[in-house]
Amino acid sequence: MRTPVVIASALAVLVAGGAGAAVVIHLREEAEQDRRARAAITALADGWSRRDLTGVPFADPDAAASLAPATTGLQASAVEVRPGKVTRDGELARADVEVSWTLPGGLRWTYPVPVTARRAGQAWLLQPPEQGSYWHPQLPVGAAMSLTRTPAERGDLLDRAGEALMPQGRVYPVQLDPGRATADVATRLERLVGEKAGVLAGRLAAAKRSGSKAPIAVITYRERDFQRLRADLDALPGVIYPATTQPLGPTREFGQPLLGSFGEVTAEVVQSSGGRYQAGDRAGLSGLQGRYDATLAGTPTVRVVITGDQASAPLFERPGTPGTDVALTLDPRVQAAAEKALVGTGEVPSALVAVDVATGEVLASANRPAFGFDRALTGRFPPGSAFKIASTYALLSTGRVALTTPVSCPARFVVDGRAFRNFEGESLGSPTFRQDVQHSCNTAFVQLAARLEPDDLQRAAAALGVGAGWGRELGVPNAVDGSVPVTTGATDQAAATIGQGRVLVSPLALAVMSGSVARGSYVPPRLLRTATAAPDSPAPSDSPAVSDETAASSAAPSAAPSSTPSSAPSAAPTAQPEPTPLDADAVAALRTVLRDVVTGGTATVLADTPGGPVSGKTGTAEFGSATPPRTHAWFTGYQGSIAFAVVVEEGRSGGSVAAPIAKAFLTELAR
Questions:
Q1: Cis previous bond, 314, omega within 30
Q2: From the CA atom positions of the chain, what is the Rg in Å?
Q3: Does some domain include residue 6?
Q4: Does a structural domain hold residue 543?
């Protein structure tokens, strides 16, 4: 009787076992569907990150092709997409993918995109979103995203009174539109703007071959010049001139190349800027406008918008920050006087620097020609007899000589087989040292060189500010504070004593030296009244041609920096350094002989200069290997509260060439 019970029990076990197996099979099937749904969503995230949607299972066959047009306007921004937690309910699976764009300049933009996958047999297909598109929940299907940048209000380079040296002014960048301009138009435009024949036509032809639609920059005009040429420009189809504003000095040449230029950045600058600049951006390209562009420019307002939809709110916005002013020590009145004085040198390269005696602040830095090399601050020249100020200080402060000491001045003196001569071949017999300085007797100084130690000249020059190390702190790349090496023998020492051999200076270095004598102490020169961190600028490049009244120079300073700009540094007032006293007796004697130079020596042209007594020293520096040697002409000195230095390259002599320029400068100031 028990057999049926046993059979029933066995059947029950079999039934239970079958149900368990079914459960296991069901669970395995569910897990597989979870995996497939997750794989479909992960494929989207991975493919989007790679910008390759091949194999992504979209339900819409056109979906993959819509990524590029939807996101091209983000300008090659990097993107990283990560799938979130996937939840599945039967035939549907959902997840948010986290999209993180790295916009130009390193700006991060992150947002979630809801994704739905639906089962189709054994496959899972990504469904069109209920709202927006696959690429952003607020982006309509078929629409595109664009990145826009609105420049912040630019800061100014300020003068010592806090006024803008280059306030914003209206300009017209003349450009060629490659899509409409013809070779004939380019040729006619060349003649109109004074460009070399074939240059614009060649650039236009290259743009057409490459298919480039970017406007070709030609020249930027200020308002006055533009209005003078507007009718002619209007007659040229394909020539455009979108009005804009940029920093403008009172004249095209004012403060150049120190203040620098402003204009459209080049492709090379964009590529090396780490995303700070984009094609079409305008920035400081050279000089202080370039070096402190990050400070002056601030940060732009960055938006991601729906292309062509001005009514919708931005998909993303990072408000910009206004630029910060950079305060300088320049005095526009002194700068203008310096530039006017240099007009007298014509096309001969020259420079004039002026500093405030009390503070060492740079009041003017003028160059001629005004564009290109900043010889005033970064030039390296032998100073010739102008360096005798330092040599005289070395001799007086060490007690090796007194003003009343007789020191002969023969026409020629030989040191270790090398003959040294006076500039005019003159001989003064046996005058006092005071008279030797007054008449700039080379042979007297050459004789006295033997009384100095090898480092005496270096130490005396540094005490006066030449070779004192301030070049690294001035705020201008490659500023030259001077180089006065320890001498290595009798002839080297003799040559150094008269500012030849290996001694090199900039005009600013000699102005600092004269200011130290006038003050009786040394303070390093100062150009910036605000301290800025990590200055940087775009690399100078070939710029479009410019007219006499254009906004920017066509050539950047040769020493301009070229590293990638950084974020805008902060600006704060700088502290005035404490002066380092000089030997009072030596300075008093030095002042006496520097006044003698003007009243009865090599710079008598300055004797009747308006504005008060002038003291200083002429210099005629030989350079090169020509016979007879070529010379630079120098004059450095001080009048009242202003110390200054003038150099005229290849000038015959300091007394005949540089000193008259100094007089013209001081006369203009006195007016």
A1: no
A2: 37
A3: no
A4: no
543 has pLDDT over 50:
no
pTM, 2 dp = 0.84
- Run of H or E residues at 44: helix 3-50
- Are 455 and 604 in the same domain? yes
Number of separate domains in the chain: 3
pLDDT at 106: 87
Q: Residue 399, class by beta-carbon neighbours within 10 Å (0-12 exposed, 13-18 middle, 19+ buried)?
A: exposed
- Count of Cβ atoms closer than 10 Å to residue 15 Cβ: 10
Q: Are residues 90 and 218 in the same domain?
A: no
C-alpha of 626 from chain center: 37
Burial class (CB in 10 A: 0-12, 13-18, 19+), 355: buried
pLDDT tens-digit readout, 41-83: 999 999 999 999 999 999 999 999 999 999 999 987 899 999 9
For residue 157, pLDDT beyond 70: yes
First vs last Cα of the chain: how many Å apart?
139
Interstrand relation of 216-222 and 239-240 (parallel, antiparallel or unpaired): unpaired
Q: Tell which residue, 38, 19, 16, has the closest CA to residue 27.
A: 19
CB atoms inside a 10 Å sphere around CB 98? 15
Alpha helices in 472-544 (DSSP H): 490-497, 507-519
Q: In the prediction, which pLDDT does 557 show?
A: 31
Query: Based on the domain organization, do 280 and 348 belong to the same domain?
Result: no
Report if residue 404 sits inside a domain. yes
Label residue 549 by pLDDT band (50, 70, 90). Answer: very low
Reported confidence tier of residue 21, pLDDT bands at 50, 70, 90: confident
Using CA of residue 188, residue 192, residue 193, residue 195, what is the dihedral sign? positive
Closest CA to 254 of 284, 276, 224, 287: 287
Phi, psi of 472 (to 5 degrees): -75, -20
Contact 383, 505 (CB under 8 A): yes
CB neighbour burial string for 141-175, b if at least 16 within 10 angstroms, e if fewer: eebbbbbebebbebbbbbbbeeeebbeeeebbbbb
The pLDDT confidence band at residue 426, using thresholds 50, 70 and 90, is: confident
Strands (E), 141-201: 145-150, 157-158, 168-176
Q: Is 573 helix (H, G, I), strand (E, B) or coil?
A: strand
Quick one: tokens of 399?
């007690």
pLDDT of residue 146: 96
- The edge-to-edge listing of strands for the beta sheet with 615-623 is 362-368, 350-356, 642-648, 630-639, 615-623
pLDDT digits (tens, 9 = 90+) for 613-640: 999 999 999 999 898 899 999 999 999 9
Q: Which helix (H) or strand (E) holds 268?
A: helix 267-272
Closest by Cα among 330, 288, 325 to 160: 330
Give the residue from 272, 305, 323 where a domain finishes.
Answer: 323
Per-residue pLDDT of 350-387, as tens digits, reads 999 999 999 999 999 999 999 989 999 999 999 999 99
Tokens of 500: 């030849």
Say yes or no: 272 and 346 in one domain.
no
For 321-351, the three-class secondary structure string (H helix, E strand, C coil) is ECCCCEEECCCHHHHHHHHHHHHHHCCCCEE
**CA 414 from centre of chain:** 48
Would you say how long the chain is, in residues? 671
* pLDDT at 280 (0 to 100): 81
Range of the domain at 306: 157-323
**What are 275-328's pLDDT values in tens digits?**
788 888 899 999 999 999 999 999 999 999 999 998 999 999 999 999 999 999
